[in-house]
Task: inverse folding
């Protein structure tokens, strides 16, 4: 089903007009406003599976149609040749001079490889200066968009970890400051190009001076939360692990949110015995502990093997039964289950590998625990779920494990929870 689709009746019906192969999709389109039958498309060969991903291939390329998308020609004329290493491509044209085109290329590893300009509608291309693009632009499979000033064909903006601007068609570049990282969307007001809006992992920004200064637009619910936590002893103090916006906390019900640390905030757990102790994770299994309510944090992974596989969002849970215990018991899921009886001061493995053992390929972390749950009515009963479809239960405090995935689809398990009264009842949610 991959490719470029066209509708001739306002979207009621669609037909595919550009197909490269079953692993190549169309990722960008540009239409000549003066001659709408002239259409450009960028394709990207990309395959993503649970245990592997390939972000490039010979299907990646730039295409042109002169008949409104009915037939297509792959463009060359100075563009990089197709290869197994061809990655994501972005394309844009200048509304004020539609024969001026720009394209940004990356390789299969997501590394920026070049910025190209055409002044003749795509017949010929020239590679321009790279400047900070070549230095500051990793993860190009995450970006790859170009935005051209509707009134100035030489001014273009390129999305990356940061935002980049050229005022001379790519011959020189400026890194734009004042924006949260990871740029994804932009709109330039056609009647006044000094006014722009920018969407990134930090929210929505705007500028009134052509990008010299930017301000975030407050009050929009744009934060993606991986987790949220409120202590029963102090329910007004709420913690949230936010995508690319760190670990957040409300000090009081009326004081708004404050940032505790940056990055990708993941699981956060408040100690049930004291609200001053907080356990907070960030990507790929890094775990921190605070003993002053989140004011400062220190590493809390002593005893966890560095060679174990940790999910992007490594789960950390607390044993809800605390009676008669001097220190809090927690569990941490890598590909093995870890337990701490010392409030995360030290950890020890209490299982073998609970995944199927497939460690993934091409940099993908796979074969990991994605969720755990301790029965509130019985600390000896522990459930564990994995990204490769396994669910396990131990009824003897992790001494032995029983596989209980029978009847479940072979899907990524996103969460396992236990009935609060009956430890034999559990629920799972699945991805896919």
Result:
């Amino acid at each position: 089903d991959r490719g470029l689709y066209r509708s001739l009746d306002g979207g009621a019906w669609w037909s595919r007009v550009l197909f490269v192969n079953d692993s190549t999709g169309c990722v960008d389109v540009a239409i000549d406003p003066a001659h709408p039958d002239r259409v450009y498309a960028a394709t990207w060969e990309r395959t993503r599976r649970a245990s592997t991903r390939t972000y490039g291939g010979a299907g990646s390329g730039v295409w042109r149609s002169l008949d409104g998308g009915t037939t297509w020609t792959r463009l060359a004329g100075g563009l990089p040749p197709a290869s197994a290493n061809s990655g994501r491509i972005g394309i844009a044209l200048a509304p004020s001079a539609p024969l001026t085109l720009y394209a940004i290329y990356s390789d299969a590893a997501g590394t920026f490889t070049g910025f190209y300009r055409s002044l003749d509608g795509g017949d010929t291309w020239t590679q321009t200066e790279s400047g900070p693009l070549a230095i500051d632009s990793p993860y190009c499979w995450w970006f790859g968009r170009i935005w051209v000033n509707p009134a100035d064909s030489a001014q273009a903006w390129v999305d990356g970890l940061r935002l980049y601007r050229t005022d001379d068609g790519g011959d020189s570049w400026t890194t734009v400051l004042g924006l949260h990282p990871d740029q994804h969307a932009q709109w330039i007001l056609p009647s006044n190009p000094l006014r722009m809006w920018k969407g990134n992992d930090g929210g929505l920004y705007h500028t009134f001076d052509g990008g010299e200064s930017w301000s975030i637009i407050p009050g929009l619910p744009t934060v993606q939360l991986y987790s949220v936590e409120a202590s029963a002893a102090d329910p007004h103090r709420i913690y949230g692990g936010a995508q690319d916006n760190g670990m957040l906390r409300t000090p009081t019900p009326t004081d708004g949110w404050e940032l505790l640390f940056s990055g990708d905030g993941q699981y956060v757990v408040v100690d049930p015995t004291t609200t001053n102790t907080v356990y907070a994770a960030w990507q790929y299994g890094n775990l921190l502990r605070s003993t002053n309510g989140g004011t400062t944090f220190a590493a809390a992974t002593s005893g966890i093997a560095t060679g174990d596989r940790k999910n992007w969002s490594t789960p950390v849970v607390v044993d809800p039964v605390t009676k008669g215990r001097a220190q809090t018991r927690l569990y941490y899921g890598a590909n093995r289950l870890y337990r701490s009886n010392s409030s995360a001061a030290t950890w020890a493995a209490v299982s073998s590998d609970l995944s199927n053992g497939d460690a993934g390929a091409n940099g993908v972390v796979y074969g990991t625990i994605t969720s755990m749950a301790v029965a509130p009515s019985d600390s000896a009963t522990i459930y564990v779920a994995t990204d490769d479809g396994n669910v396990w239960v131990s009824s003897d405090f992790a001494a032995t494990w029983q596989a209980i995935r029978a009847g479940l689809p072979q899907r990524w398990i996103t969460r396992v929870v236990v009935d609060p009264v009956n430890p034999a009842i559990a629920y799972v949610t699945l991805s896919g």
About this structure: Residues 331 and 339 are 5 Å apart (CA to CA). Helices lie at 133-136. The first helix runs from residue 133 to 136.
